[in-house]
DNA sequence: AGACAAAATGATTGCGCTGTCATTTCCTGT
DNA sequence: ACAGGAAATGACAGCGCAATCATTTTGTCT
């Protein structure tokens, strides 16, 4: 025996709206989901009834019946990292006004946690998934490959993406920075990096390779730490670099926080930038170009990655197979400023 | 006539697990939700069956049947603002390992958009809601008041919170900063602020009031812009301030981006900080204390606000009415550093 | 050992919506 | 005016789980 009494606190359902409008429930459902296939007359009646009753659809019921939700999962390795807050912004701009909404999962640079989050997201039957790396666990990767929804991998362009991908060549970007230092006449460049996730490792490898090829490699000048990146850490790392290799004449920093920190440390030590020490940053968040001296940086298209990823995802959700360019290279740009111009 | 054939691609359901374990469906449900009330024997059988089948509960079905979800809605006015990324971090730390997950809504400093998001979140039957302001539209406020779930308002301590609140006295914090400038001997302080949302307005009002009381008020020194805050904007605002009132001897900045920008602009113009110009920042994100000179700042407990808010919310969800301290003042702290020490 | 309470388990029903397919209504051209 | 087809609408069942309440099992006390 169930409660028959529909208390007034219960919110109205589709059926209530249907009764009010004098149509069937399914017509109400269609008016909401695909107004195009409902006659103008019926549509007006239904819309009026919805307004009168203050009806809002129940997403849970819809998800259960249709076996899919309006959720788009976004997996990021960090929430504090400025890189991802820019990506996030691009993504949010892209879902504005659509019926989808974004749910963020933070796997804190742990592939295992990422795997758990993938599993968790998939159990919710998401409309699509955006993941921020190519470095899943084997299981995580398999989950993505067999996911019943479109998947976009972002940040990098590399072989073997699961399906769609948007990013740029991170290794070429680092090389461009290093080459710029060389072209500016620096001959003893160092490399500063925190939080050695796989991507940071690869960038370091790219730097070493370039430096080696240019005859500028010196392992004493490669300073890394597993700890998170921060402005303070940039100062520490430069300090360590200069104590190990005082004749270092430039640094390539693995992100802007480190570069700003290094610049401040140089200021503190009265080391002239760019005269005695060149600094090249990576990512180019807004702050970088307002430093004194303004920081030269490899600018990465973070926000564009976010907005492009969501655009591809939405297109593919609406119309599976319609996205022809499934691998998008957004490139990068060298922003040459004062911190490396010593001529 | 419905599909009777259960294709192998269908994921297993509660009933499948029950059959496999030789118990009833509801026992499986209980094993998952409240293992305490199930016998050890049954629990083991069920857990084993779940593992064998690789069962994952369907959140949509659960939400529909139980009329509530595991979603916690978090409304923030901005995603790029460092303030909220710290709050976010606190919140995410707090939900780690619980069965809840956070969904973010960005209302971009628009109370109207906020209202829409409140409505949207509520339609999902969330387990709880965290909102970042006290400045809802009347309708938005009513929605929160009648929400069928706990609500925490964060960032401010003020009369008339809807229910629970966590924050600090933003006005006292600004006054403390202004007073500090006065105590350092500055007599012609200015005020820099971007993105004039209601909270920024109130802080400006608090500054004016204090300055007036101290006989230091000069409206030429109050520089604001409706545009978003950024490091670059800090530079512009200082430029404008100095052209309007060249004898200004200190600035109170409404956040760290502006303060860093102002500092850089001062450097560029060879204005000695703190000698010729004192700078006091607001919020104190990590970068502030690593500037040269290190920035004096009013430190706000952003991350603590996030973790405390989620803790209160979870406690209230588990056990309605159990949170006795429904209004928490986390205070603030003056971080006195080089940018104001001119003695 | 028997009585009783407490703990554990189960059968049934419905949450609110959408997929499927059948039926009705509308429109077009001759 | 009427056939034929397209467009619009509706009836019905079921998505997977949890609330309810009834029933069975277990434990405890005298």
UniProtKB/TrEMBL annotation, chains A, B:
Keywords: DNA-binding, Transcription, Transcription regulation
Gene Ontology molecular function: any one: transcription cis-regulatory region binding
Secretion signal span: none
Domain HTH lacI-type positions: 12-66
Entry keyword Membrane: no
Entries under CDD domains matching the protein: HTH_LacI, PBP1_GntR
Top-rank lineage group of the source organism: Bacteria
InterPro entries: HTH_LacI, LacI/GalR-like_sensor, Lambda_DNA-bd_dom_sf, Peripla_BP_I
Name of this chain's protein: Transcriptional regulator, LacI family
Natural source organism: Salipiger thiooxidans
């Amino acid at each position: 025996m169930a409660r028959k009494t529909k208390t007034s606190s219960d919110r109205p359902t589709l059926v209530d709206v249907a009764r009010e409008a004098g149509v069937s429930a399914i017509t109400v459902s269609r008016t909401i989901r695909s107004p195009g296939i409902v006659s103008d007359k019926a549509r007006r009646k239904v819309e009026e009834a919805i307004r009168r009753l203050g009806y809002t659809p129940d997403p849970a019921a819809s998800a259960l019946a249709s076996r899919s939700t309006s959720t788009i999962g976004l997996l990021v390795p960090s929430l504090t990292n400025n890189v991802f807050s820019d990506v996030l912004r691009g993504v949010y701009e892209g879902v504005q006004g659509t019926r989808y909404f974004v749910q963020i999962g933070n796997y804190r640079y742990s592939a295992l946690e990422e795997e758990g989050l993938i599993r968790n997201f998939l159990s919710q039957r998401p409309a699509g998934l955006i993941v921020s790396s190519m470095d899943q666990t084997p299981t995580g990767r398999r989950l993505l490959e067999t996911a019943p929804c479109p998947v976009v991998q972002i940040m990098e362009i590399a072989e073997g993406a699961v399906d769609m991908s948007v990013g740029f060549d991170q290794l070429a970007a680092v090389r461009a920075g290093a080459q710029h230092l060389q072209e500016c006449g620096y001959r003893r460049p160092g490399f500063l990096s925190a939080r050695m996730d796989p991507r940071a490792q690869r960038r370091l490898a790219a730097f070493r390779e370039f430096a080696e090829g240019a005859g500028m490699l010196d392992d004493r000048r490669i300073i890394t730490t597993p700890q998170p990146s921060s402005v303070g850490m940039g100062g520490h790392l430069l300090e360590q670099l200069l104590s190990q290799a005082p004749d270092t004449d430039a640094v390539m920093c693995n992100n802007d926080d480190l570069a700003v920190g290094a610049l401040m440390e140089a200021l503190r030590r009265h080391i002239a930038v760019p005269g005695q020490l060149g600094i090249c940053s990576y990512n180019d968040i807004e702050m970088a170009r307002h430093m004194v001296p303004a920081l030269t940086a490899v600018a990465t298209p973070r926000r564009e990655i976010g907005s492009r990823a969501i655009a591809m995802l939405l297109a593919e959700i609406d119309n599976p197979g319609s996205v022809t360019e499934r691998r998008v290279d957004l490139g990068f740009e060298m922003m040459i400023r004062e911190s490396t111009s010593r001529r």
